[in-house]
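User: Fold this, then the next.

Assistant: Folding the first:
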Amino acid sequence: MRLFLLTTLTMIAFAANSVLNRAALASGGIGAIEFANIRLIAGAAMLAILALALRRQFVFGGPGRIAAVVGLLLYLFGFSLAYVSLDSGLGALILFGTVQITMFSGSVLGGERPPAQRWLGAGLAFGGLAWLLWPTGQMDLSLIHAVAMIAAGIGWGVYSLAGRKANDPLLATAANFVIAVPLGLIMTAALPVQMDPVAWTNTGIGLAVISGAITSGLGYALWYTVLPRLAGTVAAVAQLTVPIIAMLGGMLFLNEALTLDFVIAAALVLGGVTLSVVRWNKS
């Protein structure tokens, strides 16, 4: 039960990141890449303070560190760059589809053998997302932004798989963020796509700081806490609940409408996740 509650809290933190990101960018108070950088810096500051206060040390090395840092940067900047142009629903499908493929492939290559029930549940849950998020009408897909979202999905999958090797979740997450900060600033300067500058507002900056320090920094440390106790494929499927939670958050905090499609999709996603993770007794 404790593992279930911690995993649920982690998914809520991930969904809150999506809501905060959408709220900040929709207000026009900050640009996507600037949001990603402030989010990264705020997360690094929060985690470094906690690591020094609670562990009295800071460790830069550790198993899976390079993969985790690279994965974190790919995710944060691929995600921000993709949503400059990509439809949010299609973007979520590309992201979570890529995460599923990356984590299932990595887990299988690592020796995990998920049962047929888990494959079926993952397919059902992703089908529910496709039902809800597939764009209607004419779809204008930007290749470079779609590739950026695929990179983000691969990055998050790699970051999550690397977290299963973490000896101390807090120290590992703090090291990932602190190392990523200077590399992220270099990546920003080297981005091949030019974007119009956006005037920063206190609201935009505040939402980025909350996203970085709380729902990213602490949320990712919590994710690294539960990952070693979850099969890689279970961790992958559990994340399919994030868009549903994020949309529910949009309904509660951004006055978005509750629809029948959402109810049906939520039932399919939650049913698929349950089918994937629950062990059915054989009589």
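Now the next one, as you asked:
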Amino acid sequence: MELPAGYEKQIEIYRERFDVELLDSLGTGTQGTVFTAQSPRHPTFYAVKFHLRKVAYEREVGVYLRLQDLEVTEVCGHQVPQLLAYDDELLTIEMTTVSPPFCLDFGGAYLDQPPDYTPEVWRDWREEKSEDFGDNWPAVLEILDEFRWMGIHIADVNPGNIRF
């Protein structure tokens, strides 16, 4: 399996340390890269996300810990991955896998305060996201409102992260 550039050493250490077999790539984005995995530590297949930037890792772990504290398994009928484990040294998050409909990828989320965007940036963001989601945009707004109620402000919203 070819590994995304920049992640090779981190993935090698993770595999050896936790006796993990990485299976399929689920995708690489601006905040990290995700694989399905199996390990004696977890009874079923799971997903593991590798981060290169500590700030994105810490934000995402914070969101998963908040969701865990609130016992959130779904939002507006969309499954949310469940936190299994995380490693502050390797910047990895292990979570359950989910099938559509789902909400995932919280590396671009903020806890307790929305990002400090100007009103113009928010306007452009809403227009772009409305176009991206089309007829599903009203349902996406409901999902985002539910997350905001939990103190989770999701800025990285796209049809790959919120799937119907």
